[in-house]
Structure formats: structure tokens, C-alpha cells
Amino acid sequence: MVTYKKNSKRISLTPTEDIVTFAKRKGFVYPSSEIYGGFAGVYDYGPVGMLLLNNIKKEWLQSMVQDRTDIYGLDSGIVTHPRVWEASGHTKGFTDPLVINNKTHERYRADHLLEEIGVACENVSFEEFVSLWNTHKHTVRFPQGVSVQDVGDPTYFNLLAKTNLGSVTYDTQKEEIAYLRGETCQGIYLNYKNVYDTMHPKLPFGIAQIGKAFRNEISPRQFLFRCREFEQMEMQYFIYPGQSKKYFGYFKKLRMKWLISLGLSKKKLRFLPHSKLVFYAQAAEDIQFQYSFGWKELEGVHDRGNYDLTQHAAFSKQKLAYFDEKSNTHLIPHIIETSIGAGRLFYALLEQNYTVQKVSKEETRIVLTLAYHMAPYQMAVFPLFKKTKFQKYAKKIFTSQSNKYSIVYDDTGSIGKRYRRQDEIGTPYCITVDEITLKKNTVTVRNRDTMKQKRIPVSKISTYIEKELIAARKKLS
Ligand code: ATP
Question: Could you identify the atom of ligand 1 that is nearest to the CA of residue 232?
């Protein structure tokens, strides 16, 4: 809990509110449609936030596609044929249990209310859920001022978001509904045959994509953790039947290692196997992160068997089999999936790295202790004085580095304030152009964490920063 002064009153904020305020103030994340009072479950990434988000996506693509010979990238459409979601089971089964407050009309996720009091209800049937609800509803912790008498019975609520985009309705009684995709992996299954036919891969191989997904979440809460519009980074790995255990274990390890390589603390990450599997899954584990509101799913690793391709083959009446030259037979590959929300990861990075440090007896500073390669800017460049000759020199440095690094120029306020501003958004290096620069072509480089300065030749800025970034990254591997 942090205490702030607002309108000369001291206010205390919970960790989530604290991060939300900070994220807006520093240009990371803005509430959507704010001038119209906001739009729940949707967020806009600001000038600084979009750089961090892009770093997350760049790192994921690098490790899941570019560094590999066996995984192909994809960027599929958001709106698909309506039958896709029938085949996948989403039109019927993509539901969450909902209870409604009869007085305020507020909606609550009934499964989350049960889970909060330790009742496991993941992947149970509706009948089982109702029975669990009726047994435990009197001990549920409702929001303040709400009691069990205020809420109705649970119903199932479908999360797919409907759209009429592309639907040509001649018969108004029979409107054809399309859906905004509820998960990006369906686009991968739809293109499995295309990728197979054009790239000629041999099993095992994967297809990976980053893209927007939409879910009509009942109560979008906890900032970027549960949104109605969000970005997923998903990879489907197609394997021979019988190899699931091997690749499930392999991807679990790989994904955990990747999260640590971004600077997430090992202590704040753990695996949690699902207590009850959906009917087609052979195995499923979450990688959880310890958010300020508890251990929650950050990424899922799932053994989906051959359910997805079998379903789409049956519904589309197309052959989605793989021809295995070794055995001269056709087979339906099994799938191991890895799936992570870019926003949930963004939020985890903000929460873990948002630090209030004591600098002296009177002074504190906010530092975003992001791994250097993840920081929105790797470098900032300042003219010490707001005079043309210093500004011109600093801008020349900016131009010479901007094609290699993410760099920002700042000449407003005192140098101390400029350092603090960069600390807050995690910039690891600040370069200052001063009087000596003009005479000797050297600059000071100040490190975010040590706050120490060093003087280096202008001609060495690029190699100095490169060396520092490589060394910092090595420590995370
Ligand atoms: P949860 O149980 O938290 O609702 P889920 O099991 O429905 O998550 P999946 O369908 O497996 O999640 O989605 C894969 C990943 O997509 C999740 O691990 C998470 O990182 C992200 N994700 C899912 N739903 C949301 C959401 N509403 N907002 C932001 N990210 C999400």
C-alpha cells in the first residue's frame, strides 16, 4: 500500500490501484474511451507502454519462431466463418457461471467466488456447479454490502463476442452471426493444412501467432489481468500420437525459462496442474505468477490430444490428416499448446518491477527495475542546458543511436528531474551532453540502478551500451 497526496488529501491505494495510477501517469496504459466515462475491460497502451508491449511480442516471436527451424509464424483474421466456433465447441461450451445482484444488477463470476473460499470448480458440469454453489453459497465472500439473499441462482454466460461483420442477411428471421475470435489458436487450426501444403514441414512442427482475442468477460477486473479485448501469444505444436508427454514436459520447461529470461523472478513463478481437465485434454498446467492479488494464471501449457483437428475435419468435411512417409499412413497429429496473454505479462512485469526506493533520509525515488532489454527505452539523451549548442549536439547523438536502440530525447526541467523521470519508466542509461562534451567529445553515462556516472567518448556510446546490455541479459539466462 502506498500513500499519495491528492488535492492536498492523503489517499491510500491498493497495489493494483497504485499500478493503474502509475501506468496512466507515465504513459504506459490508459483506460479506453476515457473522455466518455471509460469502457470496461478494454485498455489503450500509451507512448511508453506500446514500446514495452512491443518488446514482449518481439521477444516471444524471436524465441518461438525466429530462433527455431521447426515453428512457423502466422497472422490470421479475427473474424472467421461462424462454423469454426461450433466445431471448436465455443458456441455451446465457452461459458462462465454468472450470478446477478438483483438490487444493483452487478454481475459476479460465481466460480471465482467459490474459488476464493477454496472450493475447486474448474471444468465441472453445470449441474455439478449448481450443487457446489448451493452447498457453499452461505460462506461465499461477496463484495461489501452484498449478501447471499441479494443474488440470484447461477446461470451460464457465453463469452463469445458477436459481430454482424460480413454477414449477409436476406432472411431477417435467420440472421447469420459471426464472432470475434475468443482465442487465436483457432486461426492456427484453420491454417494447419495451408501451412502443411506450402511449407512441407515434417512432424513435429509448430505454428505460432500473436493477435487480438475477445471475450465477453462477466466482470473484467484487476486491470490488464482480465480484459474483454486482449492479445494472445499462442503456439500449437503438431506431434506424432504417443509423443505428448515428452513435448508437454519440453514446452513447460521452455516457457518457464523464457519468462525468467524477461526478468520475472523465479520465486514469483510456479506451475499448477489443472485439478480437473476439459474432456478432450490429456494434460494441462498453468504457469502462475504471484500478482499482488494472489497466484494467478499467466500462461497455459496444454496437451490437447487430436481434438481440434478432428473436430475441424468433421465439421468442414476436409481431410486434415498428415501423411507419414515412414509408415506410409495418414494420421491426425496431436497438439501441445502454449498460450499467454501479452497484457497479463505486461502487468506482471509492471507489478514486479515497480519499486519505491529510499535515496536519502528525505528523498525516495520510483524505479521501474525492468530487465534492460525489456525497458521501453534503453537510453535517454539530455542536453545539460537548454541552449542551442547543447541541444543540437544531444539531437545528433539521438539520431546516431535511434536506428540501433530505443532512445528518448528530453530537455525539460532540471537534470535531476530528468533522471527521475527515466528511472520511473525503467530507462537503464541516461547520456548527458555538457560543456566538456563540446570541447572533448565525451559524455556522461548514468546507470539507473547504481545512479553512478561515467564519462565515455561519444564515438564509444554504441559499443558501450551494447556491451552493457549483453552483460545484463547474460545474468538472466
Ligand atoms: P482464466 O482462467 O484466467 O480466465 P483461461 O484459462 O480462460 O484464463 P486461456 O483460455 O487458457 O485462459 O487463455 C490463455 C491465456 O490468455 C491465459 O493464460 C492468459 O494469459 C490470457 N487470457 C485469457 N483470458 C484473458 C483475459 N480476459 N484478459 C487478458 N488475458 C487473458
Answer: 16
Residue nearest (by alpha carbon) to ligand 1 atom 13:
339
Into how many domains does the chain fold? 3
| Residue 338 CB–ligand 1 contact under 6 Å | no
Answer yes or no: are the C-beta atoms of 327 and 237 closer than 8 Å: no
C-beta 298 within 6 A of ligand 1: yes
What are the pLDDT tens digits along the chain (477 aa)? 444 444 444 444 556 778 999 999 999 999 999 999 999 999 999 999 999 999 999 999 999 999 999 999 999 999 999 899 999 999 888 899 999 999 998 899 999 999 989 998 887 888 999 999 999 999 999 988 899 999 999 999 999 999 988 765 555 556 678 899 999 999 999 999 999 999 999 999 999 999 999 999 988 878 999 999 999 999 999 999 999 999 999 999 999 999 999 999 999 999 999 988 888 888 999 999 999 999 999 999 999 999 999 999 999 999 999 999 999 999 999 999 999 999 999 999 999 999 999 999 999 999 999 999 999 999 999 999 999 999 999 999 999 999 999 999 999 999 999 999 999 999 999 999 999 999 999 999 999 999 999 999 999 999 999 999 999 999 998
- Is residue 126 domain-shared with residue 235, that is, in the same domain? no
Name the residue of 344, 345, 346 whose CB sits within 8 Å of the most ligand 1 atoms, as the mutation to test its pocket. Answer: 344
| SS3 state of residue 106 | coil
243 and 196 within one domain:
yes
Instruction: Tell whether 99 and 64 lie within a shared domain.
Output: no
Closest residue to atom 4 of ligand 1, CA basis: 226
Residues 248 and 204 in one domain: yes
Does 169 reside within a domain? no
The answer as to whether 362 is a domain residue is no
> Is the pTM of the predicted complex or chain greater than 0.85?
yes
Distance 288 CA to ligand 1 centre (A): 11
What is the crossing angle of helices 49-61 and 342-353, to 10°?
Answer: 120
- The Cα–Cα gap between 355 and 378 comes to 18
Question: What is d(CA 51, CA 76) in angstroms, rounded to the nearest whole number?
Answer: 23
Give 341 Cα–ligand 1 centroid separation in angstroms.
Answer: 6
Would residue 452 count as lying in a domain?
yes
Taking CA atoms only, the protein residue closest to ligand 1 atom 25 is: 226
CA distance 331 to 234: 23
Q: How far is the CA of 13 from the centre of ligand 1 (A)?
A: 26
CATH code where residue 126 lies: 3.30.40.230
Residue 187: CB partners within 8 Å, gap ≥ 6? 74, 76, 77, 80, 181, 209, 211
Task: Tell me, yes or no, whether 365 lies in a domain.
Answer: no
Same domain for 219 and 326, yes or no, is yes
- For residue 227 and ligand 1, the question of a CB distance below 6 A is answered with yes
Q: Is residue 383 lining ligand 1, measured as CB closer than 6 Å?
A: no
Where in the sequence is the domain holding 65, given as residue range(s)? 3-79+181-351
- Same domain? For 196 and 290 the reply is yes
